Amino acid sequence: MAPNPIIIAGVVKGGVAVPVNGGKLPEGTPVEIVIRPADVPEEQRAELACWEKAGGEAWGTIDQWEREE
């Protein structure tokens, strides 16, 4: 990452992070998306908490299912 990162605000539309105020980035620009906890709805926070509790064996099973699809 650059020593002084540029922060561009955005929102999710149709499952895609979209910069607000017309902020456009060149194709292939590497980015990091940070979700601020206060902005995550309670229902989604609960789901994320469940995923965080999943152990390595569970993640291995999910990876196997994805390879089989």
Structural account:
- This protein is of the alpha+beta class.
- 36% of the residues lie in helices and 12% in strands.
- The protein contains two helices and two strands; from the N terminus they run E-E-H-H.
- The longest helix is centred in the last third of the chain and has 13 residues.
- The radius of gyration is 16 Å and the shape is extended.
- The protein starts with 9 loop residues before the first strand and ends with a helix.
- The model has no long low-confidence stretch (mean pLDDT 80).
Relevant terms:
69 residues; 2 helices; extended
Q: N-to-C terminal Cα separation, in Å?
A: 34 Å
Using DSSP, what is the number of strands? 2
Mean pLDDT: 80
What is the overall silhouette? extended
Largest sheet: 2 strands, antiparallel
Helix content: 25-40%
Total of DSSP H or I helical runs spanning 4+ residues: 2
Tell me the strand percentage band: 5-15%
The succession of helices and strands, N to C, reads EEHH
What is the C-alpha radius of gyration, as a whole number of Å? Answer: 16 Å
Please mark out the parts with pLDDT under 50 across 5 or more consecutive residues, or reply none: none
Strand order, largest beta sheet: 1-2
Structural class call reads: alpha+beta
